[in-house]
UniProtKB/TrEMBL annotation:
It is found in: Cell projection, Lamellipodium membrane; Cytoplasm, Cytoskeleton. Residues 139-225 form the DEP domain. This is Pleckstrin-2. SUPFAM superfamilies: PH domain-like, Winged helix' DNA-binding domain. The keyword Acetylation applies. It is a peripheral membrane protein. GO terms for biological process: actin cytoskeleton organization; intracellular signal transduction. Its main location: membrane. The keyword Acetylation applies. PROSITE patterns: DEP (PS50186), PH_DOMAIN (PS50003). Residues 4-104, 247-353 form the PH domain.
């Protein structure tokens, strides 16, 4: 990282005038969050915009967009609102923590307090589970169940584990994620909630209360009275359903060269095993369906030279590139945001080829 850079990477930003969503490259400095447009796999200088952090307030988790559960909301001194989406709960929380630290950079005591809070967990002494469940059912501010897919089956009226954890924190029922997970486990023990699907059902076998509920974007839950499962018939199971049934191993934003127009676009990549597939999603769209993907069985993956533009790459795109060649000889050119990230992706993919 450059001097003075606290954190950098891809986030999806909501537009101010037209509320569309676009990927930008963000750089966090002591008092400012800069964002850049990307062309040809590179950030365009000067920055597209800057967010002054002095006097800024941060909301995380932010639940204002039902189909975008991984949001951070920033509100400046002039009441301008910025909505930023990360690719995973871990990445969102890492950004939120660093931004919060940058906002309070001039207050060392506040920064120290943040570090203590990050690792301190305390369950409130008096909790009314009935009150929590009533609030969860509230039509305007409660949890909104929707159809979700896991391992080839569609489950109606479900919600993901990490979304419930976010909701419990934002409604002040819990002060930390561990506390929210413990609360959610208690709601299951009292038969207010039920796990749905293989991942969440397997977790309840754990003896530790705090491990029975999964703070996970792949684990599904439902209200106990509405647990209905719609199983796809054998005739309906498509190849894509089988592809998406694997366990998520790694996910993140990467730039990818198109096959026809050879232009570069940032996609959210999701690596799955059993079966081994690499899918990519358009982060500007709300529907959670991949726009492409391929089997990793028999594939080859390798890093490309950092000096100059490698063969097969169009435009002045260089640095942190790698290539995946599928079994049917299709070539995918992908760019990570750093050498370390490229190495992590290559190693993760190699294990599944």
């Amino acid at each position: 990282m450059e001097d003075g850079v606290l954190k950098e990477g891809f986030l999806v930003k909501r537009g101010h005038i037209v509320h569309n969503w676009k990927v930008r490259w963000f750089i966090l400095r002591q008092n400012t969050l800069l964002y850049y447009k990307l062309e040809g796999g590179r950030k365009v200088i000067p920055p597209k915009g800057r967010i002054l952090l002095d006097g800024c307030t941060i909301t995380c988790p932010c639940l204002e967009y039902e189909n975008r559960p991984l949001l951070i909301k920033l509100k400046t001194q002039t009441s301008t609102e910025y909505f930023l989406e990360a690719c995973s709960r871990e990445e969102r929380d890492a950004w939120a923590f660093e931004i919060t630290g940058a906002i309070h950079a001039g207050q060392p005591g506040k920064v120290q307090q943040l570090h203590i809070l990050k690792n301190s967990f305390k369950l409130p002494p008096h909790i009314s589970l009935h009150r929590i469940v009533d609030k969860m059912h509230d039509s305007s501010s409660g949890i909104r169940p929707s159809p979700n897919m896991e391992q080839g089956s569609t489950y109606k009226k479900t919600f993901i584990g990490s979304s419930l954890v976010d909701w419990l924190i934002s409604n002040n029922f819990a002060a930390s994620r561990l506390e929210a997970v413990t609360l959610a486990s208690m709601l299951m023990e009292e038969n207010f909630l039920r796990p749905v699907g293989t991942r969440s059902t397997g977790a309840i076998r754990s003896g530790d209360l705090a491990e029975q509920f999964l703070d996970d974007s792949m684990a599904l839950y439902t209200f106990a009275e509405s647990s209905k499962r719609k199983i796809s018939s054998k005739e309906e199971i498509s190849l894509s359903t089988v592809e998406l049934s694997g366990t998520v191993v790694k996910q993140g934003y990467l730039a990818k060269q198109g096959h026809k127009r050879k232009n570069w676009k940032v996609r959210r990549f999701v690596l799955r095993k059993d079966p081994a597939f690499l899918h990519y999603y358009d982060p500007s769209k709300e529907e959670n369906r991949p726009v492409g993907g391929f089997s990793l069985r028999g594939s080859l993956v390798s890093a490309l030279e950092d000096n100059g533009v490698p063969m097969g790459v169009k435009g002045n795109v260089q640095g942190n590139l790698f290539k995946v060649i599928t079994k049917d000889d299709t070539h995918y050119y992908i760019q990570a945001s750093s050498k370390a990230e490229r190495s992590e992706w290559i190693e993760a993919i190699k294990k599944l080829t």
